[in-house]
Amino acid sequence: MDQLSTTHYDVVVLGTGLVESIAAAALARAGKSVLHVDANKYYGGNWAAFSYDALLQWAKQNEAPMVDGSSDGQQRPLAAHFAQTNQARYTNVRADEYAWPDATEVSASLASASRQYALELAPKLLAANGELVDLLVASDIGKYLEFRLLEAVYLLSDDQLERVPSSKEAVFSSKTLTLVEKRKLMKFLMFAGAYTGDETALDGFAERPYADYLAERFGLAPRLAAAIEHAVTLKPPLQTGVTTHQGITYTRDYLRSFGRFGPSSLLCTVYGGSEIVQAFCRVCAVFGGTYILGYDVVDFELSNDDAEQGVAALSLSNGQRITFDHLVSAVDYLPTAWQHRAIADDGMRVLRMVTVLDGSLAGEEAKTAVINFAPHSSAGNAEPVIALQMDSETHACPAGQRVVYAWTKAGDTAHDALDACMRTLFRTPDSTAAQDGTDVDQRPRALFSLRFEEHIRASRDGHSDSASHDTGASSLPAGVHVCDDPDADLDFGRAVRRARAIFDAITPGAEFLPKAPPVDDDDL
Amino acid sequence: MADVSDNTALSGSPSVPMKPVQVKLVLLGEAAVGKSSLVLRFVNNEFQENKEPTIGAAFLTQKTRVEDKIIKFEIWDTAGQERFHSLAPMYYRNAQAAIVVYDVTRAASLDKAKSWVKELQRQANPNIVIALAGNKVDLVSDEDDDLHPDELDGDEEANEDGDDMPITRQVPAEEARAYADESGLLFFETSAKLGHGVQEVFNEIARKIPIDQMLMPSRSGRAGMPGSNRIDLNNDGQGIGGRGGSCAC
């Protein structure tokens, strides 16, 4: 393995997830020397996007987690075990290629078009008015990237996908709403859009269920209240029981995002979120950051300074010892003893599924869409299920196909609930056989699907969501800053806030990702 | 959601003065083959011994004229990300041109160049114009027999393997040319140090660029794609008349 010519850095960043990559770019931009390492040979870590072949390989690795064969780890108290830690994050991994009688070569065709897929582990959208868009604009890093407007938001209602109106115009022109409903909805949307966060405006409902508030104060029928709570929101809840204050805040942010770039509140990234990661990493490199992919961290060393024990050095798998002042790290790279101290206890488990379809959803032309399944939808799910459809314009898949991502809170009934919701969207050979009716099945066919459960680990420091000083109260060695996993939210807001908190802790007072100096335009 | 206003630009009348056509050009090749030096020679017509990697420039720009058209190259350097196998796919996505550089005194650098060409042919824009450039011919120039090793083309990093060994050509021009022909690449031998062949690489690329295709969608949103809903982050309120114009608040 190649050797680094420099062995001391102001900051070593471990992992190329979004939080790490934003922090790396901001730190390099602020003049810090940065070494950015990823144990994988690709960018993105738990935020990665894969070709078809690479996704299968990822699944294979995680279906049968490796066992620690090394015994020397026992002798080194601060040994790191990236691969095992990372694989333990993913459980119940299952990949299915579906065999269709008249399409026996499905698997071959998927593989032959492998590189036309960008299949994401943690798909997300950008809120048009959100922190990430603001950062990409303010820093000019958005110029590296390409975005599309999300076309539609649906809610499953009586076995039908119903397009959710999310603006005044859409409410006016809706053909499924009665005049009275339109009036009530308008009244509510006006109110929510003007919500200042002052809870007294909520008539004592602030901490009560949002659905109750919508029904009692605005007289919205359950169908409309569900549409507001689950689909007219920047943060579709993953569990029931959203409070009115939370709910109306996310509705307001959704409404305020509408119209910034066109008639939608959400943007899709072409090639997926991993592309955003690569853009931030490029900026870090352009400002002098050094990049190493495919090198593991073997172990860490604490400094001998007793006053405040800090982490001082790490060894890379190429045998080099690297010293640094600050360590910014994804959870997976940390020694086991530090992980527990770093992570907030209530880490969440989420069941995720990615499915490649041979066509668009029945009767629907939208190429990109969010599809919400409110609790107790006609599919029968007890907890909310969120789905996201991407297409070839976002380079998720070849033309004509679609990719549907879906996720829900993991639990005893989660797999069944997810399957039931997905059956309303597409068919598998099993679900087709079961529906042996005379009607022609309009649903697109699933060609491939992968499902897994993941543990979403949030750092204790970042958990409060505060951008204030990184106290280190998690009793990690001084100078260690932990990055959160991708969460189950639809948007990227939390990652930006966490990266910024880490940046502020390392370089208090420095400007966070200002624009780069302009490039001189040379004449002929 | 057809973007009508951009669409009309595609069929723009010929009397309209030609705006420069922007071309994203990426540099690829092993570390220390002289990628940055080639750009510096082309853009500023200068050469620096032991040049440090450029800090803070996402890309450099340079215009060049081809017949009645002006091409504005947006030249992307690797920012050192090629060193530890860490060049992101995003780097060469949507590039319309690439210069893959090797060092004529190091055979291994041509092997690396070939693997980059393969990667571009698999991953990049299918119409990408690729030029293969064998750099540092000043080191093996027969006309300059009295060149000393310490005057070598030491851009990016000194060729430490060289030490006191006499510098010899390891890649015959005919071999590289044969490979380039067979792979559909433009081929040049260059010296960033002496300025030899550098302008020619860029000129020839500019001539080969299919201008019509340049007016089709590109990553930076300079031209619109009919029927797409691509968006430009620096242009709020596109399509619906101003930011918040349709906001319910």
UniProtKB/TrEMBL annotation, chain A:
InterPro entries listed in its UniProt record: FAD/NAD-bd_sf, GDP_dissociation_inhibitor, Mrs6, Rab_escort
GO biological process, one term: vesicle-mediated transport
Main location: cytoplasm
Region (Disordered): 458-480
Compartment(s) where it occurs, according to its Swiss-Prot or TrEMBL record: Cytoplasm
Keyword Cytoplasm carried by entry: yes
Protein name per Swiss-Prot or TrEMBL: Rab escort protein 1
Organism name: Thamnocephalis sphaerospora
Automatic annotation (TrEMBL), chain B:
GO molecular function (one): GTP binding
Record keyword Nucleotide-binding present: yes
Ranges of compositional bias, category Acidic residues: 142-164
Key words, A-Z: Nucleotide-binding
Record has Nucleotide-binding as a keyword: yes
Pfam families found in the cross-reference section: Ras
Region (Disordered): 142-166
InterPro entries in alphabetical order: P-loop_NTPase (IPR027417), Small_GTP-bd (IPR005225), Small_GTPase (IPR001806)
Cross-referenced PANTHER family: PTHR47978
Protein name, as recorded: Ras-domain-containing protein
Organism encoding this protein: Thamnocephalis sphaerospora
